[in-house]
Amino acid sequence: MKITPIKVSVRDLxxxxxxxxxxxxxxxxxxxxxxxxxxxxxxxxxxxxxAVINTVLKDFPLNTIYFSVKHNDDGSESYExxxxxxxxxxxxxxxxxxxxxxxxxxxxxxxxxxxxxxxxDTFDNYKLDVYLCDGSxxxxxxxxxxxxxxxxxxxxxxxxxxxxxxPWLADAKAHFSKVSGPAHYGYxxxxxxxxxxQDYLETVIKWAVNYANSNxxxxxxxxxxxxxxxxxxxxxxxxxEYFLQVMKWVKQTFPNYxxxxxxxxxxxxxxxxxxxxxxxxxxxxxxxxxxxxxDDEVTKNRASISTFFLVMxxxxxxxxxx
Length: 322
What we know:
Blueprint: E1 2-9, H1 10-14, E2 18-19, E3 25-27, E4 32-33, H2 46-57, E5 65-71, E6 77-83, H3 85-95, E7 101-103, E8 106-108, H4 117-125, E9 127-134, H5 137-147, H6 156-163, H7 167-176, H8 182-187, H9 199-212, H10 220-230, H11 237-253, H12 266-273, H13 279-292, H14 296-299, H15 302-312, H16 315-319
Parallel strand pairs: 4-6, 5-9
Antiparallel strand pairs: 1-9, 2-3, 3-4, 5-6, 7-8
C-alpha cells in the first residue's frame, strides 16, 4: 500500500458536489466517489455535523481523511473515500446551503458568510489533510477496517455489504436500510437498532437463514453465505416477502401491541411456531398476556420479556401439545 499525503481545499472539494441519493455522491470535480459501496449511509446528527463546520470556520484541524486511488482504463485517476465520508458530506451540504450553524449567537448558512468576507475565505480556503492510498482492493478494504477501529467502528453488516455489492443488496437496502424505507416506516416498533447502520438488514437475513435451515441461527459465516448466494439476484423481493409474512403473523397472533414487543426475535418465533398455532389458540393469547403483564417477575427485566411472548403466552405449549 502506497500512502501519499496531500492538501485539498474546501473550495476544490465542493466543486462538482452532487448527491444522487441511491445512485451515489460525488465531489472534487466529479473525480471523488464520496459514498462507495463499502461506505455507510450519512449518519451524523446535527451536533456532529455542526461541530465539523465550526471547526473549519475556526481554522482548527480536522482528523486526517483517506482516499483510495482508482486507476482508470484511460490512464486517469479517480478516488474513493476510505475514511471521512461524514465530514466531507457535512462540508458539502453546508457549502450548498442545506443547513445553517450557530456562529457566535447567530444562525448562518454558507451564503450568510458573504457579509464577513474573511470568514467565507477561511471556509473556502480551509485545507483538509488527505492521504491517498494506492493498493489492491484487498489492501484498501483491510486498511479501511483498520482506520475505522479508532473512529465510528463499522458494524459487521456494513462490512459484509462491502463484499457483496450488486442488485440484490441495492434492493435489500432500499427496503431495510433507510429511515424512510418501508421496513422502518411500517414496522419499526417491532425491530431494534438503526436501519442506517444495517441493523434491520442483518436481523432479517438471520431470520431468513434460519427459515431455510433450522440448524442455522445466523452466524457471520451463515449470513455471508446467504449474501454470496443471492448477490447477483435481480432484487431482494423474496426476502421482503418473507419479512412481510413474519410481520403479518405477529400482528395476527398478538393484535394488541405493547412496548415489550420491540426488538424481539420474531422471525425465529415465526419459523418455529407459526404452523403450530391455530386461530383459536391465537385468540386466547391476549387474556394470558393481560394477566402476565401484571406480574412484576415477568416484566421487570428483558430476559423475562423475551420469553413472555414465546413461552408464557402459550406458543411453546401449543407447539408441544399432544
